[in-house]
Amino acid sequence: MSKNLKTAAIRLTSASALAVSVLTAVVATPATASPLTDGIAATAKAENGNGYCAHGGYVGGPNQSSSCTGGTTRTHAWCADFAGWVWARNGVTGLATLDDRAASFMDYGKKYGTLSSTPHVGDAVVYNYNGGDYADHVAVVTGVSGDTVTITGGNQGGYPGHVSTNSTPYWRVGQSPWGQRISGYISPAGTTNPQYPNPASLPSGTLVKSPNGPEVKVMISGAGVPVAASDVTPDNYDLSKLVLVDDAAFRALPSAPPAGTVVHDQAGGAARYVIIDNAALQIGGDDWVPAGYNQRPDMGVPTAWLKAAAQRTVPTGTVVMDQTGTDPARYVMVNGTALHISASEWTEDGYNTQMLMGVPGEWLKGAVAKTLQAGTVIMNQSGTDPSRYVMVGGAAVHISASEWTANGYNTQAEMGVPGTWMAAAAGRQVANGTIVKDSSGTDATVSVMAGGVAVPLTYADFTGLGYDKRTLELAPGEFLKAAMAKAAPVDGTMLLSPDSTTVWQVVGGKKKALTADQFGPGKLNRDDVVSVPTAFTAKFPTVTG
Asked: At 356, is the secondary structure helix, strand, or coil?
């Protein structure tokens, strides 16, 4: 599997390959912080480790030239280009005063009256100014905390230079923290509307933030996945490298990576997932190579987001297939269950016009095996059958015209399903042991389903037989009346009453006692036995002989 997107530690060096001062993990923002100064600091620090050709070359004011040519070649010493670029990205005014000389920042400070001996976040700091047209270096102040000042600059370290961030207690004018004398601090004269980058243009793994709010996202294949506070430490997210981005573009970012993206927990772990419409489906070991997931980029995503995404269901109506191709069938997702689409329905029902999503084979098997959620209202996707049904105990139960509105089914979401699947579901018997009640609310009777019969329960039965611990499902009243009126459960139904330990099996309207040796592996299963009131079993004659 490919490497994840955990942020790599970057070694920070000082200007001109002088003494090293490592950036501390937390840099406090001074009380005089503003959106402009915060933006300048965030923009500068986000460039840590970059060289002269980052972004095609750094260029700020109209009279500054690019630090790079041809995408590979350094044009000149580029510290002024970098500082000008940072200011320009944040809408600083008066940049025509700047050129490729570090000394031009002193010219800016004198012209606009912003030159001082006090550092502020967002200032340019100039070193070894000769009083005329030359200075050795210029960088940007990105932190002021107590008696420590943090500086970020371009063209630092050994030739050809890179962007690095360093902190020092020696920040006063005339002091030389890295062998170069500080000549002065120059504040931006003002700002227009800052030109923040579009987050969609940034590489995966970049942490982004709008200047108008505290929320942080990590860019993953063009999406902005939310980063929770609980993710920062375990996921190794470096908040000092936040990039301020355009607010409208930030808010418009998709919150989930594109369908088909392979992801893993940024904090670690072997599990891999594929994103399908905002849900994260786990990729089984048998799918990793056969489905080609091993050939896709493997993206680290925030732990909290992934945990929530793994609990989501693929949206209803999504058409899916086994990504490995082992299963040629097509399915439609309805409330988390994958329903088979027959060959004839593929075109007739319009499923062929929808985007077909490849999903892990192991995951698909589990989705196919799921019982469609109780209470789901369904109809034939083709529209050829006007009937409506509701799912009760794994079976599709018909809703009569009078109950459609009276019982409130018309207020529920109506799911189109393949007609062949619906016909099969309508032919099934409501699962034994399902606890049911009239959905109209006019009849308070609670019943247990046993071989197609709705067996009424008293409150003592309901609690004594343990049915109060099961989910109560609502069913159309007409269906329940018919189920209560049935003479006997279907043959093979197994019943147990509290008056005896004998398990009875229904045979032709009578009951036959089963022996203990008839249960076990490859034989009858005690989980299929339905507990019913004594009076119910008592009314069936016993089979003798």
From this structure: strand
Q: Which residues contact 316 (CB under 8 A, 6 or more apart)?
A: 333, 334, 335, 415
Cα 380 to Cα 11: distance, rounded to the nearest angstrom = 63
Within 122-186, strands assigned E span 124-127, 137-145, 148-156, 162-168, 182-186
Give the separation between CA 395 and CA 426, rounded to whole angstroms.
6
Indicate the helix (H) or strand (E) that contains 109. helix 104-112
Q: What is the distance of C-alpha 411 from the center of its chain?
A: 30
In the structure, how many helices (H) and strands (E) does the chain have?
Answer: 13, 32
Is there a contact between 392 and 475 (Cβ–Cβ < 8 Å)? yes
Task: Give me the amino acid identity at 385.
Answer: D
181-233: per-residue pLDDT in tens?
999 999 998 877 666 788 988 889 999 998 778 899 999 999 999 999 999 99
Q: Give 219-250 pLDDT, tens digit per residue.
A: 999 999 999 999 999 999 988 788 888 888 99
Q: Model-level pTM?
A: 0.67
Residues 6+ apart with CB under 8 A from 486: 452, 453
Give the whole-angstrom CA distance, residue 436 versus residue 431: 11
